């Protein structure tokens, strides 16, 4: 029996890239696409309505983690078996979603990540800022060392989860901010869920969402703090 795949889009001010993202998703890869608008100040919500997506809107901006919590709850309420989280900023190539889904559908992994960093040249040629590349490499190295994994990166915005993962992990206890993703993966490792990854192209451009340097520093600090919690809790 084919498993039901649902794609969720945690959106914030994604009006300039949402249509391109949706058009790039392969036909038939998902039974439903759900967008949660986190209080955007642009036309993200109106565009989602015109595209015929399943949509939900937060009355005010609650944060990236809070957005994902709503995404996953709606997907689970709609009986999803596999949930793909895709940033709607067109930075990640949706054509690779079927490959992520297949590894879970065939029982090899519980979580699949799309890794933007196969080689330094590809990442930088794709527009990834040099400081973000080095920060990603350093944090990923530390997280791999802490967990015994060898993932290409821990910080991607293209991920696929089995419903069992999202039903088992205490999502509501995780951060409403960007460190939500890190907390989820650490919790998944502790629960012995199987995590795999495949390389994906990276593309940075002015319209693609990205946290600024100051928030990147805060994110890096919080990631290191979560790593220590993982090791000593």
Describe this structure in words.
By secondary structure, the chain is α/β, with parallel strands linked by helices. It has a single domain, classed as Spore Coat Polysaccharide Biosynthesis Protein SpsA, Chain A (Alpha-Beta Complex). Helix content is 42%, strand content 16%. It has a 7-stranded mixed beta sheet with strand order 3-2-1-4-6-5-7, sandwiched between helices. Helix 2 links the parallel strand 2 (32-37) and strand 3 (54-57).
CATH class: Alpha Beta
**Secondary structure category:** alpha/beta
CATH architecture: Alpha-Beta Complex
User: What is the CATH topology assignment?
Assistant: Spore Coat Polysaccharide Biosynthesis Protein SpsA, Chain A
What is the string of SSEs from the N terminus onward? Answer: EHEHEHEHEHHEHHEH
Helix content range: 40-55%
Termini separation (Å)? Answer: 40 Å
Q: What is the number of helical segments per DSSP (H or I, 4+ residues)? A: 9
Structurally, the number of domains stands at: 1
Question: At the fourth CATH level, what is the homologous superfamily?
Answer: Spore Coat Polysaccharide Biosynthesis Protein SpsA, Chain A
Biggest β-sheet description: 7 strands, mixed
Unreliable residue stretches: none
């Amino acid at each position: 029996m084919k498993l039901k795949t649902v794609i969720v889009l945690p959106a914030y001010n994604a009006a300039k890239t949402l249509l391109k993202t949706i058009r790039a998703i392969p036909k038939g890869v998902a039974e439903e696409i759900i967008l949660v608008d986190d209080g955007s100040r642009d036309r993200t919500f109106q565009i989602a309505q015109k595209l015929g997506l399943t949509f939900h809107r937060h009355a005010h901006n609650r944060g990236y983690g809070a957005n994902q919590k709503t995404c996953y709850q709606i997907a689970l309420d709609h009986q999803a078996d596999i949930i793909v989280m895709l940033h709607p900023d067109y930075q990640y190539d949706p054509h690779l979603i079927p490959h992520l889904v297949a590894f879970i559908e065939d029982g090899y992994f519980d979580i699949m990540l799309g890794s933007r960093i196969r080689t330094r040249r590809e990442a930088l040629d794709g527009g990834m800022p040099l400081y973000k590349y080095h920060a990603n490499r350093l944090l990923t190295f530390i997280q791999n060392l802490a967990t015994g994994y060898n993932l290409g990166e821990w910080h991607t915005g293209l991920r696929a989860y089995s419903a069992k993962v999202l039903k088992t992990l205490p999502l509501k206890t995780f951060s409403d901010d960007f460190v939500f993703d890190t907390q989820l993966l650490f919790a998944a490792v502790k629960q012995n869920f199987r995590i795999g990854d495949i390389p994906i192209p990276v593309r940075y451009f002015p319209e693609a969402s990205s946290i600024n340097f100051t928030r990147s520093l805060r994110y890096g600090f919080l990631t290191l703090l979560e790593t220590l919690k993982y090791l000593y809790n």
